[in-house]
Amino acid sequence: MHKQTIKTSTNEYDVIIGKDLLSNLESYLPHNYTNILIVTDETVSKLYLNTVKEALHHKNNIGISVVPSGEATKSMEYFYQLQTAAIENHLDRKSLIIALGGGMIGDLAGFVAATFMRGIDFVQIPTTILAHDSSVGGKVAINHPKGKNLIGNFYPPVAVIYDVTTLHSLPDREIRSGYAEVIKHGLISDTTFFKDVVNTDLTIPLNSDITVEHLRKGIAVKAKVVEEDEKEKNIRKFLNFGHTLGHAIESELGYGEITHGEAVAIGMLFALRVSEGIFDQSLPYEKLFEWMQHNHYPLSIKWPTIDNLIDKMKLDKKSENAVVQMVLLTEVGKPAVQNIDDATLRTYLEKFIRELG
Ligand SMILES: NC(=O)c1ccc[n+]([C@@H]2O[C@H](COP(=O)([O-])OP(=O)(O)OC[C@H]3O[C@@H](n4cnc5c(N)ncnc54)[C@H](O)[C@@H]3O)[C@@H](O)[C@H]2O)c1
Ligand SMILES: O=C(O)C(=O)C[C@@H](O)[C@H](O)[C@H](O)COP(=O)(O)O
Ligand SMILES: [Zn+2]
C-alpha cells in the first residue's frame, strides 16, 4: 500500500493506492459519518458494490444510487436525480457521498457532494485506470450538451481509496482510454516516464506492478501541479494537454460515442503537430501515433466540421475573449500555453484531419 498526501493552500487529503483495499474500506475513511450515500454505475455495482457494502455492514444508514454506465449520465438529469436521492436518504452536513467507479461517477457524484447543502464530504473510490487522473485534484463537473464539464466546481474529496485489484475487470477499451491520461502525464512531465509508457504494449496482458508504478507516477505529476495551482490560474492548464480538441470531439460526436481517453489521445497528436509548427521543434508525434495505432486507438473518426470544432474549442474553459488557448510542448516535459487565432487553428485542423484521414 502506498500513500500520497495532497496538500493545497486550502485542504489536505490522502490518496491511498494498493491491492484489496475495498474490504477494509472503513479504516480508510477519515471521519465517522451519520449517513452514507454510495453512488455507482450499473457495471461497477455488479462487480464491487457488494464488497463495499460488506465493508460498511455495521453502519446503519447506507443509501445506494446506481446510475446507468456511460458518459451520457454525467448530466443535469442524473445530477438532479442524485440530489433527490441525497434528500430521500436523509443526508445531512455530517454525511458522506462515496463515488464508486470511474471518472464519470467521480465527476458526477463529486459535483452532487459539492452542491448538496452547499457541500458535504465525498470520497473517491476509483475503479478505472483513467480515474488515477480524475479522482485527484478536485475537479468535479457534469456536461452540458453544448460542452464538456461546463457546469462544475473545484471540490476536493476527503480521501481517494484506489484499490487497483478492481482494474483486473477492465475491458481493453477502458485500459486504452485510461492509458491516454497516463501518457499525457509522461508527455507533460518527463522524457523517461513518457518513453516508459510509450514502450508499454497494451495488446498483451498488463503487468500489474508496472501499471501501478505508472499510475503512481501519473498521480505524482498531477499532485505536484494541483498543489501549486489548485484552481487552474496558470500551470494547472498543463494537465489539459490534448483536451482542447479532445473535449470538442467528445461533445460534437455525442457523449459516449468515443471515450474521453480516445478523444484526448487524438487531441494530443494534434497538440504535438501544432507544437512542431509553432516552435519549429521535432516532437514525438510519430512515436505517439505508432503507439496509438499498435494499441488500436481510433485514428480515423467521423470528423465534425471544422467550424463546429472551432466553436466547441472556443467553449473550452481556458479560452479568453473567444480566443482558443492550447497547451503545447516546446519539448517533452516542457509544456507551454499558447493563444491560437482562428485562422491558424483552421489551417492546422485542416492539415491534421487530412493527415489522419
Ligand atoms: N475530474 C478530473 O480531473 C478528470 C480527469 C480526467 C477525466 N475526467 C472525466 O472522467 C470521465 C472518464 O472516466 P472513465 O474513463 O473512468 O469513464 P467511466 O467512469 O465512464 O468508466 C468507463 C467504463 O468502464 C466501466 N468500469 C468502471 N470501472 C470498471 C471496472 N473496474 N471493471 C469493469 N468496468 C469498469 C464503467 O461502467 C464505464 O462503462 C470523463 O467524464 C472525463 O471527463 C475527469
Ligand atoms: O485536472 C485537470 O486540471 C485536468 O485538466 C485533467 C483532465 O484530464 C480532465 O479531463 C479534466 O476534467 C479536464 O478539465 P476541464 O477543466 O478541461 O473540463
Ligand atoms: Zn482528461
From TrEMBL:
GO MF annotations, alphabetized: 3-dehydroquinate synthase activity
Annotated positions binding NAD(+): 69-74, 127-128, 139, 148
Cofactor requirements of the protein: NAD(+); Co(2+); Zn(2+)
Binding site for Zn(2+): 181, 243, 260
Parts forming coiled coils: none
Entry EC number(s): 4.2.3.4
Enzyme class, broadest EC rank: lyase
Protein name in UniProt: 3-dehydroquinate synthase
